[in-house]
Design goal:
The protein is of the alpha/beta class. It is built from three helices and five strands.
């Protein structure tokens, strides 16, 4: 099973390709405020390095947090959009062994349909002015 790994909770973003639990390729880059601009390019580069296309992906594991509000929002939006459009399962996980637990969840047939973030605390949103 070809699995796409996505982690965007901090300024250094990470994406990877795994064959079940075996790492095929992994990319880490300082995305910080350019994550939305760079994640799709990095994904295409990663797939190209393994001679794969988007339709070859069979599952997605995404880190759900806690972490950066904007980073998690972008990463989970990309993961959810890909899972929906490719009609493949998605698993969101957290913790030290998040990749392994996510790959195992997919192997057991888990599919969250839509992965939701866990920010660790309420987001700091500016209240509307009256």
């Amino acid at each position: 099973m070809l699995i796409l790994i996505i982690r965007t909770d901090k300024p250094e973003a990470e994406i990877g390709l795994y064959n079940s639990t075996a790492k095929l390729a992994y990319s880490t880059w300082t995305a910080h405020r350019r994550l939305a601009e760079t994640i799709h390019l990095r994904l295409q580069e990663l797939l190209g390095s393994q001679d794969k296309k988007l339709h070859d992906i069979q599952g997605i594991v995404v880190y759900k947090g806690p972490g950066s509000f904007t980073g998690l929002r972008i990463g989970l939006s990309v993961a959810n959009a890909l899972a929906y459009s490719l009609d493949i399962p998605i698993a969101s996980t957290q913790g030290k062994n998040w990749i392994i637990s996510g790959c195992e969840a997919l192997a057991q047939g888990r599919n969250e349909t839509a992965a939701m973030p866990e920010y660790g605390s309420p987001p700091h949103v500016t209240p509307p002015k009256h």
